[in-house]
Amino acid sequence: MTYCLLLLTVVALTAAVPVPRALVRAAWPEREPVVALWVWQCLVATVLLCCLTALTLGAAAVFGTVRAQLFAPAPPAVTAAYDLSAAPVWAAALTLLLACGAAWSTAMLTREFVEARRRRGVTRAHLRERAPELPAGLEAVARGPLLVLEDEYPDAWWMPGNPAQLVVTTGALHRLTDHQLDAVLTHEQDHARAHHDWLLHLSTALATGFPRVPLFAHFCDQTHRLVELAADDTASRRCGHLTTALALIELNQHRGVLSCSSSHRLLGERVDRLLQPPRRLGRRHRALTATVAALVPLLPLLIVFGPGLTALA
């Protein structure tokens, strides 16, 4: 059991500190944002699985009731292979620490999703006030997936919820051409199709709860960046890189899309990336990267089930 806990700790620390820092410095995530998002999710899953499995083993070693319930269907040889009766003192401290971390993570996730739901409710109420009054026969259309607001500033965004709505201002309809508007709608629809809002909430909750953990801090920053790049790629594949870049400029020109301020730097990077598309990775390279990333979360499971499988063999 001590050996398993040490291995889980090493894997968790490796995935939480050096690997995300190296991934941030890498150049390929900008070329393949979808694959990069998958890699980040696999890293987070690896750390969470390491913590969960270590918490389970530690609780089984510290509490006899948990051990009896957990290993009830297992043969005696499997229980003996884990040697849970000889748990060191530090295992109890680690179990307590992991239990507090699990409770804190649950609280942060709950708060984030509750706050997100509250913000959506406030936003929907505000949009209903701004939306023009329509005849009774058109009220059902206003509650559909597309909502048009009277506003001189061009803007468009996808508001998740039930039902989800795509909000477009009249300023965007007047300023954008048909092809540019199609690019904007495709961009926002990709956010909804890929459920990027859930990924953003998860990354924000983990970064808020554990701001000093490099993995969670980088996961939040990179997720907010990569989801936009991924949606840009979807729009550019359908409508063209130049059309998508021009649409992005028209929508954000009043915000200073080409300024050098840090708050608008991502917009400028997105425009430059669309005007000078990066060279993509090969199909085999993408598949290999995604496969290796998917196998990494299996390490905690192999570490935990290794002694039991060895005892059965």
Keywords for this structure?
313 residues; mainly alpha; elongated
- Percent of residues in beta strands? under 5%
Distance between the termini: 18 Å
Shape: elongated
Helix content: over 70%
Counting DSSP H or I runs of 4 or more residues, the number of helices is: 16
Query: Unreliable segments (pLDDT under 50, ≥5 consecutive)?
Result: 134-143
Largest sheet: 3 strands, mixed
Computed Rg: 24 Å
Spatial sequence of strands, sheet with the most strands: 1-3-2
**What is the count of β-strands?**
3
Task: Explain the overall architecture.
It is elongated and about 75 Å long. The model is unreliable at 134-143 (pLDDT under 50). The protein has 313 residues and is mostly helical. Helices cover 73% and strands 4% of the residues. The protein contains 16 helices and 3 strands. A hairpin with a 5-residue loop joins strand 2 and strand 3 (165-169). It has a 3-stranded mixed beta sheet with strand order 1-3-2, sandwiched between helices.
